[in-house]
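Lecture notes, part 5. Sequence design as translation. It can be helpful to think of inverse folding as translation between two languages: the language of shapes and the language of residues. The source text, in structure tokens, appears below.
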């Protein structure tokens, strides 16, 4: 099985004594090998538990990183986006598999159970010392600009940029792909969704970057890791 995320942290050597979100970077390269091992273990656990979620995380990670590059986000911040996105649904391992794979509509209680996955993911990831705020990013990836997201109904300024990037990549991949309860809706529908909710649910700059990828016809290739 190939790794879903390459944790090479670029630019660290040129910034001795600097920081990533307040953390020292002078020895950040020491994180790479153990972190890659941790990420590989997490990937295997998710594949074993729910192959659909594993595929979704891989494709969403490819798109989120491409959006970050399109936005010219700092290399180390982009690396944090890639790392967090690769495990953004890890909390779903706490959700019964019959709910995750249910072909019909979910009951309200089942929906609420799935909506707990960012918190469950945070609880799992906060025990791992990453050089980025991975646990917090995962916790916030379902928050929305207008405060209608979950779990804490945060609003725009209180949501991390990394989480805003993952939010857009997440919805685009989910809409463009087959889900247990519906067929794929396609890229056109996904594009319309993020444009319609730009500045409302989703960050404007992130949406613009994603739309630029659509315009260049790169999204399909990016999702499959071809480019």
């Amino acid at each position: 099985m190939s790794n879903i995320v390459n944790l090479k942290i670029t630019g660290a050597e040129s910034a001795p004594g600097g920081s990533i979100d307040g953390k020292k970077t002078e020895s950040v390269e020491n994180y790479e090998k153990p972190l890659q091992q941790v990420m590989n273990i997490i990937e295997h656990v998710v594949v074993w538990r729910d192959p659909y979620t594993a595929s979704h995380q891989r494709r969403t990670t490819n798109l989120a990183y491409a959006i970050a590059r399109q936005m010219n986000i700092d290399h180390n911040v982009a690396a944090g986006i890639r790392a967090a996105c690769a495990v953004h649904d890890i909390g779903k391992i706490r959700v019964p598999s019959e709910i995750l794979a249910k072909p019909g509509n979910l009951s309200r209680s089942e929906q609420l159970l799935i909506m707990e996955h960012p918190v469950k993911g945070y609880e799992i990831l906060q025990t791992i010392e990453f050089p980025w705020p991975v646990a917090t990013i995962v916790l916030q990836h379902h928050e929305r600009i207008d405060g209608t997201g979950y779990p804490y109904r945060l609003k725009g300024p209180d949501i991390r940029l990394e989480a805003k990037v993952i939010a857009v990549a997440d919805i685009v991949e989910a809409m463009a792909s087959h889900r247990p309860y519906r067929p794929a809706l396609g890229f056109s529908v996904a594009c319309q969704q993020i444009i319609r909710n730009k500045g409302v649910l989703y960050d404007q700059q992130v949406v613009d970057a994603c739309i630029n990828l659509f315009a260049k016809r790169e999204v399909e290739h990016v999702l499959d890791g071809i480019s």
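The translated text above is only one of many valid answers, since several sequences can fold into similar shapes. The chain has eleven helices and two strands.
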